């Protein structure tokens, strides 16, 4: 039997966090710190184009620098960067992405729908199974 496409959400072996940060109270800092402090056992890859280390872990400037497979990406970057990130993840054969951003709440419903459509189109064009967007 083929593996179910939701498996990466429940049995993750690797997670990359776009926007992982050392800046207190940023979404990327909170998400990365929560994963670190709560006993995640898989490979964890902070992605930040500016820093070489995030919270004591080696940071990567892009997903293309990670040689191992990545099962899930969490996107905690400025809103408009999402579709480009999803497209890059698709090229690396990442199947699931989660867009976590409290900033979308400040945008209109039309903008949020347009963003979701752009994310879904980028995902479909690269064979991704799931894109989950919070705060929509």
TrEMBL record:
One of its GO terms (molecular function) is ATP binding. This is CoA-binding domain-containing protein. It comes from Nitrosomonas mobilis. The keyword ATP-binding applies. The keyword rRNA processing does not apply. Residues 9-99 form the CoA-binding domain. SMART domains: CoA_binding. Gene3D superfamilies: NAD(P)-binding Rossmann-like Domain. InterPro entries: Acyl-CoA_Synth/Transferase, CoA-bd, NAD(P)-bd_dom_sf. Keywords: ATP-binding, Ligase, Nucleotide-binding.
């Amino acid at each position: 039997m083929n593996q179910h496409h939701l498996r990466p959400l429940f049995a993750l072996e690797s997670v990359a966090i776009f926007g992982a940060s050392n800046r207190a109270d940023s979404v990327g800092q909170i998400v990365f710190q929560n994963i670190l402090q709560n006993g995640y056992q898989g490979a964890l890859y902070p992605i930040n184009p500016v820093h070489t280390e995030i919270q004591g872990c080696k940071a990567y400037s892009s997903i293309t620098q990670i040689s191992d497979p990545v099962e899930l990406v969490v996107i905690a970057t400025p809103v408009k960067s999402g579709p480009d990130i999803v497209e890059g993840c698709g090229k690396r054969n990442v199947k699931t992405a989660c867009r976590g951003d409290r900033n979308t709440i400040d945008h209109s419903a039309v903008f949020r729908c347009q963003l979701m459509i752009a994310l879904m189109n980028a995902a479909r064009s690269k064979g991704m199974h799931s894109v989950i967007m919070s705060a929509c």
